Amino acid sequence: MQFSVIFEAQLADPTPQRERETLADCVEQAVAAEAAGFDRIWAVEHHSLLRYAHMSAPDVFLAHVAAKTSRIRLGHGVVCLPFGYGHPIRVAERAAMLDVLSGGRLDLGAGRGATRQEMAMCGVDPASTYEQVEEALRIIGNCWTAEQFQWHGLLDIGPGQVLPRPVQTPHPPLFMACSKAETLRTAADYGVGALVLGFAGAEEISAMRRVYDAALAERTGERFVSAVRNDHFAALCPTIVADDGAEAFRIGARGQRFFAESILHWYGGGPEPSEDTADDDNAAVLKLEREAVVAKLHEANIPVRPSSTGTYNVDHAYGTASRAVEYVGQLARIGVDEVICLIQMGTVPHDAALETIRQWGAHVIPHFRKKDETR
């Protein structure tokens, strides 16, 4: 099992100064993740999503992190691949440059950038995002290995050569964001890894693993987007860990509420997320807040990210390290290949994020490393 940390650069108080501080905090947390023994970090591309995600140029962020680290893999994912966000050849060039400068540490994940806000900002046609993502993946998966590359589909490209060539041969691993059964089956058909995002919890992740396994067993290979197959299944794990388990739960539940309200706002047209950072240490208050968010999410009937919204709960790795070990044990039994730790949520203090990374490195990751070694 592998372990990673994901960054969207969320912040509850989006002033220019706080934005700079948040991005600097993300860098520090990424460097700390390497020291703690994590295998990978992921940086997610979004555009114009105030509070929810200020990571508009993850390749720049990852290049900065690469210069400060030596081992941890760099997940450039997801990259928004509809053509309005970036021409596939430019995505391939920039990703290859990052792979070269990092010494071959790049992983590339694909996404649609499906909010109305993002699509409107970047001139993306909502009706064409799926077919454009598929074509972009095929272009990227093949242009890195061709001496002379040309393409005639939705785009007419070449002939020409993509430079530089990536260090990893034949090319860096490809992934795709998967938030529902349909996209899991698509990822399996494409032969790319699945990044299962959302707050649904272990039961939902187990159901998604079954869908993915069934799709792997049924695929013919006709839709593979490159000559390299990647069947890696990675799942999100919201987590805050501290010696004081109740305090860790309080911080995590509040951060998750902010995250969920951000999803509701940008994907479902709901109100802006609350910036109230007052203490929520009363269990009854937490229960009422949770029920209020659940009601809003269901009322919005959001179709684009059901695993993020369909089952909202706080039954995650919030608490002490032993609670995190218990929860990750559930994911291991499900067959998760990689646990993606979501720590950097909008209201989570920087010191709580660093402490969570430290706790995982001291207690959680070594527990599962030892189990792997004894098999």
Summarize the structure.
This protein is of the alpha/beta class. It is built from twelve helices and eleven strands. The chain has helices at 16-36, 58-68, 88-101, 116-122, 129-143, 181-190, 202-218, 245-268, 283-300, 306-309, 321-334, 350-373; strands spanning 2-7, 40-43, 73-80, 106-111, 149-152, 156-160, 174-178, 193-196, 233-241, 317-319, 338-342.
What does this 3D model show about the protein?
It comes from Catenulispora pinistramenti. This is LLM class flavin-dependent oxidoreductase. Keywords: Monooxygenase, Oxidoreductase. InterPro entries: Bact_Lucif_Oxidored (IPR050766), Luciferase-like_dom (IPR011251), Luciferase-like_sf (IPR036661). Residues 1-252 form the Luciferase-like domain. The chain is an alpha/beta fold. It has a single domain, classed as Alpha-Beta Barrel (TIM Barrel), CATH 3.20.20. The chain contains 12 helices and 11 strands. It has helices at residues 16-36, 58-68, 88-101, 116-122, 129-143, 181-190, 202-218, 245-268, 283-300, 306-309, 321-334, 350-373, and strands at 2-7, 40-43, 73-80, 106-111, 149-152, 156-160, 174-178, 193-196, 233-241, 317-319, 338-342. The strands form 2 sheets. An 8-stranded parallel barrel has the order 1-2-3-4-7-8-9-11, surrounded by 9 helices. Strands 5-6 form a two-stranded antiparallel sheet. Strand 5 (149-152) and strand 6 form a beta hairpin. Mean pLDDT is 89; it is low at 277-311.
Q: Any idea of the CATH topology?
A: TIM Barrel
Q: What is the share of helical residues?
A: 40-55%
Q: Write down the CATH class.
A: Alpha Beta
* Main sheet: strands, sense, barrel: 8 strands, parallel, barrel
